[in-house]
Predict the 3D structure of the following.
Amino acid sequence: MSPVYPPGLTPAVFARALAAFERIVGAEAVFAAPEDRDTYADKFAIDDSRHRALAGLAPTSAAQVQAIVRIANEFRIPLWPISRGKNLGYGYAAPELAGSVVVDLSRMKGIEIDVENGVATLEPGVGFYDLYDYLQKRKIPLWLSVPGNSWGSVIGNALDRGIGYTPYGENTSKLCGLEVVLPDGDLVRTGMGAATGAPTWGLYRYGFGPAWDQMFVQSNFGIVTKANIWLMTEPEQVRGMDVEMEAIEDLAPLIDTIGALRREGVLQQSPTIGNWLRAANILSTRSDWVRDGAPLTDDVITAIRKKFGLGWWGVSLRLYGRSAVTDATYPILEQAMRAITPLSIKPTLWRRGDPIAPGQGGWMGVPMTFPMQNANWFGGRGGHLGFSPIMPQSGRLALEQFRRNLSRYHEYGFDPQMSFAFGERNLINVNAVLLNKDDPAFMKKVDPFMRAMIVDAKAHGYVEYRAHLDYMDAIASTYDFNDHALLRLNERVKNALDPKGILAPGKSGIWPKAYAPERGK
Amino acid sequence: MRAAPILTLALAAAPAPAQTQQPMLAGKAVFGEKCGMCHRADGMGTGLLARRVDPKVAELEKRADLTTDYVRVAVRTGIGNMPWLSRGEVSDRQLDAIASYLAKDGK
């Protein structure tokens, strides 16, 4: 595929910029061959020929990132920073603006651990597996909060507000102090890191005056080159249960019961309620159940559920901490769950020193990749797109949302993988829209489906917390209070910090003046 | 089920191996760091390959039929549901070590 240049950039100017980049990172860390461009494309996209990178650069230090940013300003090269680029379902390593140069931070793998305080200071190339191996090798009793796809970066995940399943599951809320290269090449440390030599950078979030950590989350205001993130202490015991609920309607009492237990503090983890397909599409393919294109009827769903012992809904609940505390709390949890008459309750127990059973690691900080097997639901080339509106923690509203979504899935002939993830006071209605990239007719329906889902949710006040590249502008437009005042604020900040608009133009719908005509394309 | 094209890669598309004077990296260690999360026990790649090959050899390290060219192409162009990997993440030198290890060169 021919290279795609961003607006205003000529091949001659780009060649000069590449030579300048090579002087900073070395020729072996500049990737501009056609094969290189392909490796930054989004394999799970509806159309992976969109959002094409022009090249990649792999710096190994914050100083190199600063120099790259200054060169980008000189030659007006749009940059797209990635930590490890494993944001499958939301864009992988691909840039929003085609022709951007990917700043690939995957070689920045610094790890420092403050064992006593449970703080990891990480560079963005550190993956969940890297950190897990580091802790295991040194027998450091700290646990990660891992997402369902743990292939990616710890910091990258927190910077995109990814979630895990332990009491530390809201990963972005565990960030405590960032080191950031600004769009002009300046280097800033947030929070206590702004005080040279302060031993409290990873211990107190706010510093003095305005606190900026979240300013650099899901934004294009800087490149995070280092961050502190809190890790939980390995508990003495993890006790809990896997719960299956029989009927669609059981979603409402399940959410209301778990929500109340969480607000009371009985349950401190971040559980996710998933439907039968969320488990079945990992364990099997569609053709195990029906011929090509045939609908998944109620009888088929019943057969799938019977085969794998699934309810319509399932959730894993876990209590963490001292044995005496979790043993005392468990009967309270059990009583509350039995009151809503589940199909089954399967107790689980792990004590410090026990091996962690396959499939159980997600609740105990062990990275995993097997949930991505859902990309093979159609048996060939697949993938998934995330659609994840934020909702109140209400069983009634969640059930209504589910029914609306389900009717859209049926209208378009798609299979509904749906879940509801608990935040502190919210739910995230995570839809993994399963793709069949071997079927062009199928793929043509995906974009209209996604846009219908966005409109449906917005009609009830629900908008997404995170979006694939194809939908960043659409989602930004749903934040529309006072004629999109938030977007106007974001873009005022953007233009002040980044007047040439070189850093991740279009990220989260934030377009600098220099590339404003690209909005919505 | 559609068969994934696991045996039909166009080897002509393989990028040239890196020309380097540096010693070969330890393939097993590099494989563990770059590939193990999906291609060892309980990984996505192992789970999906178990649907297509003898499950006893679903873990790549147990395969006897992999060639260096095949491994290089699979990594750089992706295969089945596996995305492609950039040279930023896996350098050519690291990929050489992985490919030689999986192809069991010299063994």
About this structure: The helical segments of chain B are 27-34, 36-39, 44-49, 68-77, 92-102. DSSP finds five helices and no strands in chain B. Chain B has a mean pLDDT of 83. Chain B touches chain A through 30 residues (CB under 8 Å).
